[in-house]
């Protein structure tokens, strides 16, 4: 009888804890205190009652606090752990959505965009040259004839020069640029087999095709083979998709919106390119 008389007062007295927990643990801790008082009526707490929802809390937290206050208002009914978990789950879900919104980066100013997009712009200039050289070869291979005014020798040398420049370009990237970027960016991390970043795996696939094309053009230059456009196409087609994917993906990866996630403006100015 004594315990039943003291229980409502003890449960209500735990409400003084509610204003103390205004962050993510607000509801969970408050309900834990209520359950503790209900199951252990011999514990004592100062009698303080929550009369209103703290106005300083965000609206999402006010909703959680109001739910906690309402649940505690019926002091004669013991709050259940299931009810506490449900309210806490609601608060957690609201917090997660709020944090996702807060993580969205603000728009870049024009000057900031220029700093962060510097590497992408430089890379795209190199890639534009490679696209142009590829198209010259590919259009001849698919059209069945060389560009007007270009001799057979000049055409073959154009193809070999394209391969040589692309090889040097990739060597510079893998030696001087990618290792620096990989310190913060997983998109450029080296590794063995499938452990390598996608851009590096693309390099390997591209070089397999380059070797095949170089072998054919070298044989044509030396006279060991005749240059046939249909054969040239078979030497280019297998790696056409991965090459164009790489040329676009690499520039996008170096773009301002991605680079700002990893580097400060001052760091961007010191990155090699």
From TrEMBL:
Q: Which chain regions cross the lipid bilayer?
A: none
Q: State the superkingdom.
A: Eukaryota
Task: Note the Pfam families from the entry.
Answer: Hemerythrin
List the InterPro entries: Dimeric_xanthone_biosynth, Hemerythrin-like
Residues forming the Hemerythrin-like domain are 120-253
Name of the protein: Hemerythrin-like domain-containing protein
């Amino acid at each position: 009888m004594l315990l039943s008389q003291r229980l409502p007062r003890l449960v209500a007295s735990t409400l003084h804890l509610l204003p103390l927990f205004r962050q993510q643990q607000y509801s969970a801790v408050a309900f834990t205190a209520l359950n503790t008082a209900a199951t252990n009526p011999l514990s004592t707490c100062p009698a303080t009652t929550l009369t209103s929802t703290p106005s300083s809390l965000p609206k999402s937290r006010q909703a959680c606090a109001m739910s906690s206050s309402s649940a505690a208002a019926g002091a004669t009914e013991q709050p259940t752990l299931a009810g506490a978990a449900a309210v806490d789950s609601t608060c957690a879900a609201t917090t997660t959505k709020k944090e996702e919104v807060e993580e969205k980066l603000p728009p870049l100013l024009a000057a900031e965009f220029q700093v962060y997009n510097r590497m992408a712009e430089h890379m795209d200039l190199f890639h534009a040259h490679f696209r142009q050289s590829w198209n010259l070869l590919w259009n001849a291979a698919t059209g069945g004839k060389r560009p007007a005014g270009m001799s057979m020798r000049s055409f073959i040398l154009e193809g070999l020069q394209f391969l040589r420049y692309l090889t040097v370009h990739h060597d510079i990237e893998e030696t001087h640029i990618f290792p620096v970027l990989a310190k913060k960016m997983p998109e450029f991390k080296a590794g063995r087999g499938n452990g390598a970043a996608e851009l590096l795996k693309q390099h390997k696939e591209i070089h397999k095709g380059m070797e095949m094309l170089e072998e054919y053009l070298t044989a044509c230059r030396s006279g060991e083979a005749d240059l046939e456009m249909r054969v040239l196409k078979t030497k280019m087609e297998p790696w056409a998709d991965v090459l164009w994917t790489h040329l676009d993906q690499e520039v996008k990866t170096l773009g301002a919106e991605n680079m700002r996630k990893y580097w400060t403006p001052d760091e961007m100015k010191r990155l090699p390119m």
